[in-house]
Every structure is written in C-alpha cells, then in structure tokens.
C-alpha cells in the first residue's frame, strides 16, 4: 500500500476550490475582464497602513497573546457594540484570527465530532462544506433558491427534525455570498425562535456587514447571543483581504475551547497586521462608507443591464455580488456558460453550481471592480448573448 493511502480519508472526497481553479484557468486568456473573486478594488486606508508601518519601524515584531493584542480586542469589541449592539468582553469573548477562513476552521473543528451534522443554506460560499467534511461532519443542505435566497424557519425546522440525533450547528452568512441577499431583524428572529434552547450552535459569518445597502445590518449575536458564534473582520470593510485579520466572538466558555484550536493552528495572528486592524476598528469605523456608495452605484448599473439581456436577478442588498439566472437559450449548465463567456466574450464570472444546491443555472458576478470595467464587461456580455438569440 502506498504511503498516500494512509492520509486522512476525508481528504479523498474533496477537491481544491472550484472558484480558485476556474479563476486561475481563465486568467490565462488575453484581455479577460474578471468579475470573479471577492476582492475589493479599493486600497487599504492610509491611516491603517501608517499604523502598520509604525509598528514595523518600532520593531513590534514579536508574538502577541494568542487571542490577539488586548488593544485590538478592545477596539473590535467597541466596533461591534457601536455598529451592531452586541456586547463581547474583549478578555474572554473575542478571538483574533488569521482571517475569517481560519475562524471558520477553528470554530467547526472545535464543535464537531464525527457523525455530527451542520445545516448549510445554499447557495452559499462553499468554504463551510469541506471544513465540515474534514472534521467528519455531514453537510445538510437547505436549498433557498425558491425562497428568495433566505432560510425560511419552516425549512430550518424540518431539517433539524430530520437530523435530530446529529445536528450540531447551522451556518448563516449575510449579506450572502454569492447572492448579495441579506437578512432582516424579522428574518433572524424567526430563525432564533426555531433553535433557541436547543443544543445547536449558530455560526454567523457577517464579514460583509459594513456593506449592507439599505437599513442597518443586524447581527445574530444581538438576537441570540447565548448560542451564536459571530465571525467578522476587516477584509471587506477596510479593503484588507491580504492582511488576514478576522475575529470570532461568542460566549466565554465556548470561546475558551475555540481558542485552544486557534492556538494549536497559528499561535497568533501577524503582529503588524493586528496593529493595523486596531487602527481600522478604532479610528476607521466608517471607512467602508465610500466603498459602499461605489458598490451601490455599480449594482444599480449592472442589475438592469443584466435584466435587459434576459438574466433574472435577485437584487442584492449587500456585499458586491449579483447572482444571475441564465437566459433560457443557454440552458442550465453554469459551467458551460461561464467557459463560453470567458473564451468567446473574454468576460469571466463564477459558475453558480459551485455554490451548492440551488446554484445551478446561475452565475455569480462580482462588481468589486471599477465601473468602467463593468461597463465594458456588460458591452461584451450583451454582444455574446445577442449572438446566441
């Protein structure tokens, strides 16, 4: 038997990220316009960069506490309270991570035993699925495509009943990647009513919270604090994806256990990046506003342009994605459409099938790029669609 046959068996059922693989493949096409990744096209604010430079110049290059710099945890706690009315003790209820990706991994690893189930409403960013499987868990999908891409409490209750002996957690992500749809206070209250008092964790990924377009983002951490583990960070709010600073917040006893996994994984997040994030949370609480306004302008151009071509779109109310249903003449294969669009029109979008049940027949279009590029992409797409009519 080969040595590779002795590796973790769950890995054999997984493959690398479809999104990253497709983005890499189409990047080889000359003159391609990529509307693929969730990467803000803005720069990190200058005052945040200067804070990191200052830390480097002062030789602040040593390990921090595993949970993160005390000043950063305090600033993050204040930010979450000021913005979303959640109360987290920075000493015991808040953990700084290497991005939300590490936060998701540490959280699921800390709560899952083999055979546990995690309820995942789809379409959704697929990260939660392989991490659940790597920990021996079973993803339980709830297709929200017929419900406006919102998890209805009746369907959640049915999924819990069907897996009553194994369900350990549900995942929420809002504003949602890939649809841009978000949850209202009423929506969250109804979900809370279903799980309140049950031995079920709510893992609430709210990384796009500052990019909510109408009304104020409501955190599940405010609605159901005793069962909710909140994930957030500075990647989208402050255009800091490459700095890799996220956070986990939740009940103190739960956070103590998650903190062990985090400690074993990375010891602590990068020191100067933590200093930068502290500056972002403390003195840049509204840094996302100019970006939010630009995204709204791009959305308001892109959505009607797509509808004019024959796409059906659930109008996004946050993040920076459009989830568009293919015009009838293209059938339902999102992969076939995305490949043809990339090679023939030189516009790259992500196939909807990669986001789980309910995603096939759609494509995700990121408008985290300049309006000029979006207009050129629309022009190319319109010509491509017309040619197939």
From TrEMBL:
Its EC number is 2.6.1.-. The keyword Ubl conjugation does not apply. GO terms for molecular function: transaminase activity. It comes from the Bacteria. CDD domains: AAT_like. PANTHER family: AMINOTRANSFERASE, ASPARTATE AMINOTRANSFERASE. This is Aminotransferase. It comes from Schleiferilactobacillus harbinensis.
């Amino acid at each position: 038997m080969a040595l590779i046959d002795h590796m973790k068996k769950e890995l054999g059922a997984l493959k690398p990220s479809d999104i990253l693989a497709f983005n890499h493949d189409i990047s080889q096409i000359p003159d391609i316009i990529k509307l693929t990744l969730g990467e803000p096209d803005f720069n990190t604010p200058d005052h945040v960069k200067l804070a990191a430079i200052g830390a480097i110049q002062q030789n602040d290059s040593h390990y921090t506490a595993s949970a993160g710099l005390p000043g950063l945890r305090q600033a993050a706690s204040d930010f979450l309270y000021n913005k979303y009315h959640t109360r987290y003790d920075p000493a015991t209820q808040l953990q700084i991570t290497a991005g939300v990706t590490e936060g998701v991994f540490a959280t699921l690893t800390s709560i899952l035993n083999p055979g546990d189930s995690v309820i995942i409403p789809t379409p959704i960013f697929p990260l939660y699925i392989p991490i659940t499987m790597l920990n021996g868990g079973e993803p339980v999908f709830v297709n929200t495509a017929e419900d406006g891409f919102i998890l209805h409490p009746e369907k959640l209750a049915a999924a819990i009943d069907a897996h009553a002996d194994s369900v350990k957690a549900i995942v929420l992500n809002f504003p949602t990647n890939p649809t841009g749809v978000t949850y209202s206070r009423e929506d969250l209250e109804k979900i809370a009513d279903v799980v309140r008092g049950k031995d079920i964790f709510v893992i609430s990924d709210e990384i796009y919270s500052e990019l909510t377009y109408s009304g104020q983002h409501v955190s599940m951490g405010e609605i159901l604090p005793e069962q909710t583990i909140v994930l957030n960070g500075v990647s989208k709010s402050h255009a800091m994806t490459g700095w890799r600073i996220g956070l986990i917040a939740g009940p103190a006893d739960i956070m103590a256990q998650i903190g062990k996994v985090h400690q074993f994984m990375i010891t602590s997040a990068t020191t100067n990046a933590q200093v930068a994030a502290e500056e972002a949370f403390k003195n840049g609480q509204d840094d996302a506003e100019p970006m939010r306004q630009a995204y709204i302008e791009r959305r308001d151009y892109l959505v009607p342009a797509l509808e004019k071509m024959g796409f059906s779109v659930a109008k996004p109310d946050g993040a920076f994605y459009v989830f568009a249903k293919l015009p009838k003449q293209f059938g339902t294969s999102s992969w076939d459409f995305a490949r043809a669009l990339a090679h023939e029109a030189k516009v790259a979008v992500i196939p909807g099938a990669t986001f789980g049940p309910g995603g096939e027949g759609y494509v995700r279009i990121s408008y985290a790029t300049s309006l000029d590029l979006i207009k050129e992409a629309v022009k190319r797409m319109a010509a491509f669609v017309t040619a197939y009519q």
